[in-house]
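Hey L., structure's done. Input below.
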Amino acid sequence: MLTDIMRAPVEPVPTEQNGATHQVRVIEPSKGWVPLRLGRLWRYRELFYFLAWRDIKVRYKQTALGAAWAILQPILTMAIFAVVFGHVVGVKTGNVPYPLFCFTALIPWTLFSYALTQSSNSLVENANLISKVAFPRLVIPIAATLAGLVDFAISFVVLFGLLLYYHRMPSTAVVVLPLLVLLALGAALAVGLWLSALNVQYRDVRYTIPFLSQMWLYATPIAYPISLSHGAFRVALSLNPMTGVVEGFRWALLRTGPVDVMPLAVSSLVTVGGLISGLYYFRRMERSFADVV
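Output:
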């Protein structure tokens, strides 16, 4: 199998053809854990750009509403939550209007959900590229994750309009938003690395992704504040990496009081652990992608 990983050391093998001597370099798949070389990924930065740009163009190509889909999805979800949880259930959100309370959390969640789905299916959808070209396969799920930033930017403009409508101006805490966005992308990539590698081996994994995303939505304090949970249930919610992101967005944009450090710290630790384990599994399975996909 031809891969981009060469066994070290690899000695050139001299061959003779038509009286001339040629040097042949033998490329073989590695065995066991393959260390991650960030410098090698950086050399393929243009490939990151073109793959992400291709995913963006495919998303909006031949669509009637175009970029409006990035706005409609969180708005419609917010409307449903506002009716069910805001009016029927009567969830209390303090001095924050429920639509704003909910939409602020849906913005990072939509980014996470899109990045998770795209990265999980990225290897299977790029099967022809994987089987024909040698390059770090890690480029594909990362590029698929970054493509969701366009939708996030569009939705954030709508959120800014809602802040103006409700006369809620964010404080200087907005400077932490880029870090929270990175945390959301890291959480999506951590799960996406596992699912994308498993999806190559077992194609029914792709059918579980929408169900997983739907269940994860209700396990994240989007329609309700985390203050409603107590004891073991609160700890379980904090293990969700998106809990810290959602609560951080509300704190930075809505000035909901002092930040709750515990959910953010636990979510960060879970994300880092998920990324390390996901990278280990992805790099270990990478050598078989071209043969199986």
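The chain is about 65% helix and 5% strand. The radius of gyration is 22 Å.

-- N.
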